[in-house]
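sorry for the late reply, my laptop died twice this morning and i had to redo everyting from scratch. anyway the thing you sent over, i finally got around to it. pasting the sequence first so we're on the same page, its 230 residues, then the predicted structure underneath. double check i copied it right bc i was rushing
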Amino acid sequence: MTAIAPHMSAFLREHLPQQKGASVHTCESYADAFRLLFEFAAQRFQVTPSALQLEEIDAPLIIDFLRHLETARHNCPRTRNARLVAIKSFMRFVEYRVPALLEHNRRILAIPTKRSDQRLVHWRSRDEMQAILNAPDPQRRDGIRDRAMLHLCFAAGLRVSELIGLPLTAVEFQPMAQVRVRGKGRNERALPLWKETTSDLRAWLAVRGEAPVPELFLNAPGAGDESVRL
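ok and here's the structure:
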C-alpha cells in the first residue's frame, strides 16, 4: 500500500505553485477539493485522512464522491467537474511517481465530466454602462480612484482579481498607452487603453502619491488594494 500524504504534500506545495506556476486561487481551489475528498474517504474507511492509501482512492470511490457532491452538498455540475479536474491533475502527477499504479490511475482519468448548461452572459446597454462609469465623484480622491478602476476594468476586460492585484509598473503610457496583465495560468497579455481610460489613470496617478506597496490602486489608508471592494 502507498501512503497518499507525501504525494499530496508534494503536489500542493511544489508541483502546482512551483512547477506548474498555478495561481494562489487555483492552489486553494485544488486543496479544497481534496479536503472534501479526504473527509469523504476517511469516513468511509474509518481512518484519519493522513492514513489514507493511494490504492483506496480508486475510480468507484471517486464516482461515489462526485455523486455525494451533487446529492448531499447540492453542488452544480460545473462545481462537480471542477473537483474532478483537480483529482485528475493529481493522478497525472502520481503516475510518474508511482508507476505501479498506472492502471489504477487510468480508470480514474477515464471518469467523464458531466454536461452542464451554459449560462447566458448578461450585458449592459451603452447608457447603463456609462452611468456606472460616471457614478464615482471626480472631486474626491476615492472617486478618482474608483473611476479609474471602473474604466480600466471595462476597457481591458479584467477580472476583479487581476484589477486589484495590478502593479504600478503594469501601466505604460509611452510609446502607446497600454496595460500588461498576468492572468490565469500565468498568461501575460498587453492591452491598449482608450483615451478616456488613459486620462482617468493619469488623474489617479496624480493623487495616488508615494506608497510602500507595488499595487496600482490603493485603499483609503494607502495600503495595497487587496481590501478594495468594487
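Strands lie at 171-172, 178-182, 188-192.
thats about all i looked at so far, will dig more tmrw
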